[in-house]
UniProtKB/TrEMBL annotation:
Residues 25-95 form the DnaK suppressor protein DksA N-terminal domain. The keyword Ribosomal protein does not apply. SUPFAM superfamilies: DnaK suppressor protein DksA, alpha-hairpin domain (SSF109635), Glucocorticoid receptor-like (DNA-binding domain) (SSF57716). Pfam families: DksA_N, zf-dskA_traR. GO terms for molecular function: zinc ion binding. This is C4-type zinc finger protein, DksA/TraR family.
Length: 136
């Protein structure tokens, strides 16, 4: 699965005494999320083109089997990314509602460091850790 390419979007540096989820922070994460979503969509489109172009060029049955296996793996990856696009869109909706950056479980602020690493995070690290322990 594609890792988000955030290198061209530097981490947000809040000003001293800046209010949490100020308009600057919100705009930063909107840009970050939309950039990630656009990258995933572009990757999906290139996969379609790649499969269409490469599927007709193989005559040997063994090569075709290998190629089809590669296609299957690539399609599974794109399916996970499709689900991630849905999660990104959900997060963008949460931004529009004004609830972004706050834990859905306890209401605490989610640290900017966590949001930089995982912009779709909807739980603070403490609540996420507890939820993961319950899953095991």
């Amino acid at each position: 699965m594609s890792e988000p390419d955030f290198e061209n979007i530097p981490a947000y540096k809040p000003a001293k005494n800046e209010e949490f989820m100020s308009s600057g922070q919100v705009d930063h994460f909107k840009i970050k999320l939309n950039s990630w979503k656009d990258q995933l969509i572009s990757d999906a489109e290139s996969t379609i083109t790649h499969i269409q172009e490469d599927s007709n060029q193989v005559a040997d049955i063994n090569d075709r089997a290998t190629l089809e296996e590669e296609f299957a793996l690539e399609l599974r990856t794109r399916d996970r990314e499709r689900k991630l696009i849905t999660k990104i869109e959900k997060t963008l909706h949460i931004i529009e509602l004004g609830d972004y950056g706050y834990c859905k479980t306890c209401g605490a602020e989610i640290s900017l460091l966590r949001l930089e690493a995982r912009p779709t995070a909807d739980e603070c690290i403490d609540c996420k850790t507890i939820a993961e322990k319950k899953e095991v």
